[in-house]
Amino acid sequence: MTVIQWYPGHMNKAKNQIQARLKLVDIVLEIRDARLPQSSRNPLLDQIIGNKPKIIILNKSDLADPKITQQWQAYYHRRQQPIVVIDAQHQAHLPMILTAIQERLATKITKYQASGVKNYTIRAMCLGIPNVGKSTILNKLAGKKIAVTGNRPGVTKNQNWIHTSHYLDVLDTPGVLWPKIDDQEVAIKLALSGAIKDSLLSSLDLANFAWGFWVQYYPQILEARYHLSATELNPNLNLMFEKITATNEAAGDIDQQARQIVQAVRQGSWGRFTLDRVTAND
Ligand SMILES: Nc1nc2c(ncn2[C@@H]2O[C@H](COP(=O)(O)OP(=O)(O)OP(=O)(O)O)[C@@H](O)[C@H]2O)c(=O)[nH]1
Ligand SMILES: [Mg+2]
Known about the structure:
Strand order of the largest sheet: 4-3-2-5-7-6
Domain CP-type G: 15-179
CATH class of the largest domain: Alpha Beta
Bound molecules: guanosine-5'-triphosphate, magnesium ion
Low-confidence stretches: none
GO cellular component, one term: cytoplasm
Number of domains: 2
Structural class: alpha/beta
Number of strands: 8
CATH topology of the largest domain: Rossmann fold
GO molecular function: GTP binding; GTPase activity
CATH architecture of the largest domain: 3-Layer(aba) Sandwich
Keywords: Cytoplasm, GTP-binding, Nucleotide-binding
Main location: cytoplasm
Order of helices and strands: EHEHEHEHHEHEEEHHHHH
Distance between the termini: 27 Å
């Protein structure tokens, strides 16, 4: 088993900066990937933010399995944890974040209003692991492209205040992972979503996991894509390479085939999916 142990310098710096700026903000917006509501949760964040009010934003909902997203929403409602599900590319979803902030900080806002303060400013901090869409969300809230975004982990390197409206300033922060990802399955899920660099895991491990997962949860997608019958589907990818090569230019080159599978999953060619599941005991 590979234990991913790493802590690039800028992440360590980011963690210290979060701690330093926390006292300046009223609320934390924790952005997670809707395809991995649990695995994209940084266990360090709750320790760092303590009892600061927090809203979870499940972003990239356009890529996630809508049925499972609903189950996660119910899961967090049961725990009375405010949660908003959005697709940051969908402008109409953004007001849900503002409503959730107003609801969570209702007491504070009422106090401002009761004491006649008209021009109050709410300060929020946007936190989360890399590549979940933090900067994209803030650009959309601001209505212009202020922060740099990109489909790879580690795009934002420094904290930046973004003035999103007359009453809401949000601090954009670099994505932070925890120092040691010792759960191999979590590491694979993070890599498949694009939150950690490809070079940290082998494409074959990622493809094997994806194949087994799809056979269990989304078999019809594989049957259609690779022209297979239900009885031909085997959860062991190694036994399937030959069968899927007929439709694949990379026939014979297993590493190349594995890379193609990972790419197909990430591009959404294997459909919408959610890798974390709510279990019966949750
Ligand atoms: N499909 C989809 N893509 C999104 C969504 N939100 C962001 N993206 C894309 O995801 C990629 C990462 O977005 P960023 O905003 O740079 O992510 P970040 O969390 O700021 O990343 P770091 O700064 O590296 O921590 C970009 O290619 C965005 O266009 C979404 O809701 N749906
Ligand atoms: Mg960013």
